[in-house]
Specification:
Elements (H helix, E strand, L loop, with lengths): L5 H27 L5 H11 L12 E4 L1 H4 L5 H13 L9 E3 L25 H11 L3 E7 L16 H11 L3 E5 L8 H14 L5 E4 L17 E3 L8 H12 L10 E3 L12 H13 L4 E3 L8 H7 L2 H7 L8 E6 L2 E8 L3 E8 L5 E6 L10 E6 L4 E2 L4 E2 L1 E6 L3 E9 L2
Parallel strand pairs: 1-2, 1-8, 2-3, 3-4, 4-5, 5-6, 6-7
Antiparallel strand pairs: 9-10, 10-11, 11-17, 12-16, 13-14, 13-15, 13-17
Helix pairs in contact: 4-5, 6-7, 8-9, 9-10, 9-11
This protein binds 2-acetamido-2-deoxy-beta-D-glucopyranose (3 copies).
One 2-acetamido-2-deoxy-beta-D-glucopyranose binds next to loops.
Length: 415
């Protein structure tokens, strides 16, 4: 049994104390700074926290074009996706970012060095698209790269043009920037990413900054003053192996996630056809409890009932959007069995029982491992069955879990 040992627990409590005291210090600091002039207050905020845009208080939700369409995008697809987010009811559940990925611009900038929307696929331009998306009550995201070319090499990156591009995005009404890491000048991401952060801050429009650095230099350790989220992994693909590998890698950095800055194990593949229904439920459940961005990656205009059942599960979304904003961690592992847990507001706990193996298994979670006081009697809500179990639980909870499947509960102490 690979149980977390006592020293790990002590480290975690120490970390909590440090977090709380640093929050208190920030409060004291900010009350002092009322006396200072507004200018110096602002520069102080920028110094300590380059990205003070107030966004990402809960993980972002929406859609991104890449996983389903890769480079085959145009303004019609983006508009129809915005329409579909509304007509399916997904926008009401919180999915409100419509994010264009790579391949939206001409390879050449204009005479003044501005990015130019690709004439054959985005003839109306991005400003018109933003207006359309905003008219639906949604937000528009765009994509660039901290290099000379984006990963597709079909359009320029923003390296050396950060201020100009950030200003363009702000003028167009862009709400979210995914900033990739291809075709660079060889300098470190810790040199190139802050330049865009500052450019976005100067642009005058709050723009969610998604650092897509792929986890190469552990952006979880330096991303929080620079971005609202940071990729912790290589690109996901529509397979169990890739999904679970990204889940594992992302979990390592759990303690770095917090409101305003989230670990990002990459966008969702639910609905793209490469995994079973149970595997997609595992995918969505882990992303939800990991406080990952919930960015759908399927064709929203053509979703099956099964896909809709998964991504529109309001109880699972509520875990992701919980006000506490604490990422769940692996509490216990044994062979193919994993128990993931994390605290939620109201002294509740999110509990995931995961079977990664080829055969059905019985899985038991002990209060001891998931930070529930030993004598607590707990009520369990099964979020995929949509039912509160009649039995109350003391000390442990056991369930039978199919191969490549999970059970997801919210546990609420009742006595
Ligand atoms: C998908 O990801 C897995 C794990 O990272 C990798 O082994 C596999 O080669 C990838 N498949 C494709 C088609 O890219
Ligand atoms: C819609 O999805 C189904 C699979 O669920 C697929 O067979 C079909 O080709 C899709 N239609 C379009 C227009 O993409
Ligand atoms: C689980 O808890 C029940 C009730 O408290 C107890 O009877 C049982 O022995 C526990 N199971 C295990 C495996 O410890």
């Amino acid at each position: 049994m690979a149980r977390r040992d006592k020293s790990e627990m002590a480290k975690m409590s120490m970390l909590m104390i440090m977090m709380i005291s640093s929050m208190l210090m920030t409060m004291v600091d900010s009350s002092r700074s009322v006396q200072r002039s507004r200018d110096s207050e602002e520069s102080e905020i920028v110094r300590r926290h380059l990205l003070a845009n107030g966004l990402g208080v809960t993980p972002p939700m929406g859609w991104n074009s890449w996983n389903h369409f890769s480079c085959n995008i145009n303004e019609k697809v983006i508009k129809e996706t915005a329409d579909a987010l509304v007509t399916t009811g997904l926008s009401k559940l919180g999915y409100n970012y419509v994010n264009i990925d790579d391949c939206w611009a001409e390879l050449a900038r204009d005479a003044k060095g501005n990015l130019v929307p690709k004439k054959s696929t985005f003839p109306s331009g991005i400003k018109a698209l933003a207006d359309y998306v905003h008219s639906k009550g949604l937000k528009l995201g765009i994509y660039s790269d901290a290099g000379y070319l984006t990963c597709s090499k079909t359009m320029p990156g923003s390296l050396g043009h950060e201020e100009q591009d950030a200003k363009t995005f702000a003028e167009w009404g862009i709400d979210y920037l995914k900033y990739d890491n291809c075709n660079t000048d060889g300098t470190r991401p810790t040199v190139r990413y802050p330049v865009m952060t500052q450019a976005l801050m100067k642009s005058g429009r709050p723009i969610f900054h998604s650092l897509c650095e792929w986890g190469d230099m552990h952006p979880a350790l330096w991303g929080s003053p620079l971005g609202n989220s940071w990729r912790t992994t290589i690109d996901i693909n529509d397979s169990w192996l890739s999904m679970i590998a990204n889940a594992d890698m992302n979990e390592i950095y759990a303690e770095h996630a917090r409101p305003g800055g989230w670990n990002d194990p990459d966008m969702l593949e639910v609905g793209n056809g490469g995994m079973t229904k149970d595997e997609y439920i595992v995918h969505f459940s882990i992303w939800a409890i990991s406080k990952a961005p919930l960015l759908l990656g399927c064709d929203i205009r053509n979703m099956t009932k099964e896909t809709m059942e998964i991504v529109a599960n309001q109880e699972v979304i509520a875990i992701n959007q919980d006000s506490l904003g604490v990422q769940a961690k692996k509490a216990r592992m044994e062979g193919d069995i994993q128990i993931w847990a994390g605290p939620l507001s109201g002294y509740r706990v999110a509990l995931l029982l995961l079977n990664r193996g080829p055969t059905r298994l019985s899985i038991t979670a002990f209060w001891d491992d998931i930070e529930i006081p030993p004598n607590s009697i707990v009520e369990a809500r099964d979020l995929w069955e949509h039912k509160t179990l009649k039995q109350k639980f003391l000390g442990n909870l056991t369930a039978t879990v199919d191969s490549h499947a999970c059970k997801l509960y919210v546990l609420k102490p009742v006595a």
